Amino acid sequence: MHKAALLQQKSRIVRYSKRFRVKPGHKVKLADIDPDFHSTHEDEAAAKGEIVTNQEKLRALQYRMYAENKRSLLVCLQAMDAGGKDGTVQHVMAGMNPQGCRVQAFKTPSAEEAAHDFLWRVHKAVGPKGTVTVFNRSHYEDVLVVRVHKLVPKKVWSRRYDYINDFEKELTDSGTHILKFFLHISKEEQLIRFKERLNDPTKQWKISESDYLEREFWDDYMKAYEDALRECSTDAAPWFIIPSNHKWFRNLAVSQILVEHLEALKMEFPKPTVDLKRIRREYHRAEKEEHKRR
What we know:
The chain is of the alpha/beta class.
């Protein structure tokens, strides 16, 4: 491709990291954010090439992080039911090597977990240096579902914003990079996806008794999310609100943001710990002996 064409292509690329990032302390109104937004791409076919490129870059960047072993990445995914958390893991993280990437889902706390502070089980799940960890739901459930269903008093859950910010700062100070994505779908889109689950035997296992019960609390959840996004989006651990009615656009935006962040780290492969000249001599000696045996 000619240089002029490359420059023109770059100028058309929208930086979703800037467009969808929640500024610290900025008031969020989810009703004003269009979950149908899909930028300059008309459909999945138009975005597919960029998505595939991002997947390939993520594969290479994750390998470099694993080899460098100096820092880690924590990706938090939050959404309403059927919002696309599993799909994001499947389509964005698919190319990563399982040796250095794992997914942690947070469900109702066990008896042991409930006997500790709400961040106890979360801290244990954060991966070591060199790894990528994806939280499918996260510690934010403790300022969302517990608030909506009044599982703890307001004086308890309202203090948790500061606890979360302190916890995430501790992680980032220790070399863990944190990117948090709220996958924003409409209530109408959720119902469409519920119908798909009902009609698709391969998805019926995802159906929960609570699906339609939770829909009744939609407005309460939106308010809870708005407050969490405002209170806990920081420079070091930002939130991104991703329009997600179009699954393909969700994959495009999330993958682009991940690639941009990881490329900015300028990760390097470690220097060899052995004498390469000596190893090469040993290799050539072994090669000659092998030829003699043939």
